[in-house]
UniProtKB/TrEMBL annotation:
It comes from Roseateles saccharophilus (Pseudomonas saccharophila). CDD domains: SF2_C_suv3. GO terms for molecular function: hydrolase activity; RNA helicase activity. The keyword Nucleotide-binding applies. SUPFAM superfamilies: P-loop containing nucleoside triphosphate hydrolases (SSF52540). Keywords: ATP-binding, Helicase, Hydrolase, Nucleotide-binding. This is ATP-dependent RNA helicase SUPV3L1/SUV3. Residues 264-409 form the Helicase ATP-binding domain. Gene3D superfamilies: 1.20.272.40, 1.20.58.1080, P-loop containing nucleotide triphosphate hydrolases.
Length: 740
């Protein structure tokens, strides 16, 4: 006889785990309620591990180590979370001392920052301590500060996370242990200095000390450090010898000692000053004051728009100034200064003063090489480097490799940006507000929505040409529009009367996937609020229409200090000397092969330098070797540096046809695009035409007898700029039209 009663469901597990087999790893004495507390607080507990804490960054490694998985990875970039069984009592003790509240995560992050300020950091499963010990050398009492890391017991660290008692932590850790190889290393350093003294060039000897210090400031195993110091002395010795013989092999193979390949800069004994501070702190203004007084000089900007602005700033002070960007050269009569984009830096001709702007861009994956090149190679008697304070250690280390020690000048912001208590609805926007988005489509969509509420709107995004960006900025500055909608382009140098910065989102697409904004990005953008002299105060918040957790994300990111990437190495891209040397020595004429060898050779000095991202250059090189092999190697190398976005097939196709025609006939052919585009097309079509104009002008500047038609292309560019501005100023909806 069948029973009418339903089959009872199995009871829910007492310890819900993503991987049920991990239940065997839980301590027998653990209560279900205690495990529930740990799961609820996992995002804030310092004992919890995520895959990126390990070198290979995988869940499998954490599993092999015997960790218990607390939660799986989730969309939006949230990692999986894990805990070692022996840390379960520690985590519970943490929650007893610091109960789970809305402030627990920020409290733990603050204590983590305090640990890092004491030189403590977590490396995998171990905490290590940075120890710095002075070494005194025989030569004139030279002192070198040696950095090394030693493991520390974890108990005092967990106690600090519980009570925040810095004094108790210091007491528990005690004195920093002596370096195990202090005597051996001092002996090795004395030997290297003695070898350098024996060369008999006393005037050059002082530049050896900062090179040795640069190596000793990076913690590394003893044998690696000893080898790195020997290489540093070798490069120094090589540099001294190169100044007396042009036939030096090391001079020819300059990629083995990148800083020493810039002869003019190395011989100057440059005076270098770092101007450090947040946005709106006056550092750029101070740099221009000095540049305006120079006998001659250079301003190196991150964007063509800022190069234009720099030229106008100097001309406004009565300083004749030329303009040089990737696609134009505009000489001025009796020019004392050239304002240029940083990729156009002149590393041959000496100037009195040079200014490098936005130096934290050295951390940029695609363009950081240009800042490395300029910082190391600009031949200026006085060099001013403007940047954010968090970039200073990386820049100082790079200068030490050049035998230079910079001075620092710190700038403080005149007024601080205040976080608003709540999101702002789009219907409550006021004049002076800037709304930030991270795609062309979103900028245009927001522009249309805000205009429907009766506001006049200016827009700024990356696909806009500098001239239009400038006009849109001026419309906002003079009050012709009262709201600005922009991408993060406003975070770099534009001087705008913004009172409130409002994020429409805290995520952006970075070419691979959507990710949360970094701390430095948030600071750079938010710092545009409250421009000194325009507004007494600045505010930052999010739109109410943003994602649900946007305000929470902003609240967590804004108090944090931006940091440089861990274990950063300055990116380096090849120049013609590298390419020519490799080609001659290796007997290789294929540009793709030469660039590949460069990438391998630079690993000889990978303690401080890394090859820049060359994927786009390699793609162009392969195409040029295949379709334009008749061109000399130097001309193919010039072509490979062109601003061709390989995500735009139409632009790549145009570029390939011009280069192929150049190789076959000596001419690029007629610019048919002059007849295909005008100022009356769709917005996205006009932006596409401007990219073609920019590429043509860039190539003409490097191959003047091959391209030509410059006046017609410039005329089309001006008409396209007018057409784009007209559409942006109009009331017609733009975002629903084709193109992103």
């Amino acid at each position: 006889m069948k029973s009418d009663s339903p089959t009872p469901k199995p009871p829910a597990p007492a310890f819900p785990l993503p991987q049920p087999r991990h239940a065997a790893r839980l301590p027998a004495s653990l209560a279900p309620d205690d495990w529930a507390r740990i799961r609820q607080a996992a995002y804030a507990l310092p004992q919890v591990l995520v895959p990126e804490d390990l070198d290979d960054g995988s869940d499998e490694s954490l599993d092999r180590l015997g960790c218990i998985q607390i939660s799986k990875a989730a969309g939006g970039g949230r990692p999986s979370r894990w805990l070692l069984p022996q840390h379960i009592p520690v985590a519970l003790a943490q929650l007893e001392a610091t109960p789970l509240t809305n402030t627990l995560r920020s409290q733990m992050q603050q204590r983590l920052h305090q640990l890092e300020s004491l030189g403590l950091r977590r490396e995998g499963l171990v905490f290590t301590r940075l120890c710095v010990h002075p070494l005194t050398l025989s030569h004139e009492g030279w002192r070198i500060d040696l950095s090394h890391r030693v493991p520390v017991p974890e108990e005092p660290v967990w106690a600090f996370f519980r009570d925040g008692d810095t004094a108790a932590l210091r007491h528990s850790l005690g004195q920093a242990p002596e370096y195990s190889y202090k005597a051996e290393l001092t002996l090795h350093l004395n030997h290297l200095v003695a070898r350098s003294e024996a060369m008999g060039d006393a005037g050059q000897l002082a530049s050896l000390l900062p090179r040795l210090q640069a190596e000793c400031s990076v913690p590394m195993p003893y044998e690696d450090l000893k080898a790195a110091l020997t290489r540093a002395q070798d490069r120094w010795e090589q540099t001294v010898e190169e100044q007396s013989t042009l036939a030096s092999l090391g001079r020819e193979l300059a990629f083995q000692g990148y800083p020493d390949s810039f002869d003019t800069a190395r011989k100057l004994g440059r005076k270098v000053t770092l101007y450090l501070g947040p946005p709106n702190s006056g550092k750029t203004h101070a740099a221009f004051e000095r540049l305006a007084q120079a006998l001659d000089g250079a301003y190196l900007a991150p964007l063509r728009l800022l190069a234009l602005e720099g030229r106008d700033r100097l001309v406004g002070r009565g300083v004749p100034c030329s303009l040089l960007t990737g696609e134009e050269s505009v000489p001025a009569a009796d020019a004392r200064v050239v304002s240029s984009t940083i990729e156009m830096v002149n590393t041959r001709d000496t100037v009195d003063v040079a200014v490098i702007d936005e130096a934290q861009m050295i951390f940029d994956d695609s363009r950081g090489w240009a800042w490395t090149q300029a910082i190391v190679g600009v031949p200026a008697r006085e060099l001013i480097i403007i940047g954010s304070a968090y970039a200073a250690p990386a820049i100082e280390r790079l200068l030490q490799l050049c035998g230079e020690k910079p001075e620092k000048r710190i700038f403080e912001r005149k007024q601080h940006v205040q976080l608003m208590p709540a999101p702002v609805p789009m219907t409550h926007l006021h004049a002076g507000d800037a709304v930030v988005a991270f795609s062309r489509r979103d900028v245009l969509m927001l522009r249309d929505q805000i205009q429907q509420n009766g506001h006049a709107v200016s827009v700024i995004y990356g696909a806009l040409p500098p001239e239009v960006r400038r006009r849109e900025a001026e419309r906002f500055a003079v009050g012709a529009s009262d709201i600005l909608v922009a991408t993060d382009a406003i975070g770099m140098g534009l001087n705008l009367p913004i009172r409130r910065v409002l994020f429409s989102t805290l995520t952006k697409f970075d070419g691979v996937g959507d990710r949360e904004l970094s701390v430095s990005e948030v600071h750079q953008i938010a710092g545009r609020a409250g421009r000194y002299g325009m507004h007494d105060e600045g505010f930052v918040s999010v739109l109410k229409e943003a994602e649900a957790d946007a305000m929470k994300t902003l609240r967590s990111l804004l108090p944090k200090e931006p940091r440089a990437p861990r274990d950063f190495k300055a990116p380096v891209a090849p120049n013609w000397r590298h390419v020519d040397t490799i080609s001659r020595r290796m007997g290789v004429n294929k540009l793709y092969a030469v660039l590949s060898i460069f990438m391998q050779q630079l690993r000889l000095d990978d303690a401080h330098f890394a090859v820049a991202e060359l994927e786009q250059m390699l793609e162009l090189a392969e195409m040029l070797d295949r379709n334009a092999s008749a061109l000399p190697l130097q001309e193919r190398f010039r072509y490979a540096q062109a601003p061709v976005d390989n995500r735009l097939p139409m632009l790549v196709e145009q570029f390939a046809s011009w280069a192929t025609s150049h190789a076959r006939t000596g001419k690029a052919g007629d610019p048919y695009f002059l007849d295909e585009y005008d100022q009356h097309g769709r917005l996205d079509r006009m932006e596409q035409a401007l990219r073609i104009c920019t590429l043509w002008l860039w190539l003409d500047l490097r191959f003047p007898d091959v391209y030509g038609h410059v006046e017609e292309v410039i005329d089309l560019r001006a008409r396209l700029n007018d057409g784009i501005e007209r559409q942006l100023k109009g009331k017609k909806a733009l975002w629903q039209r084709r193109g992103r």
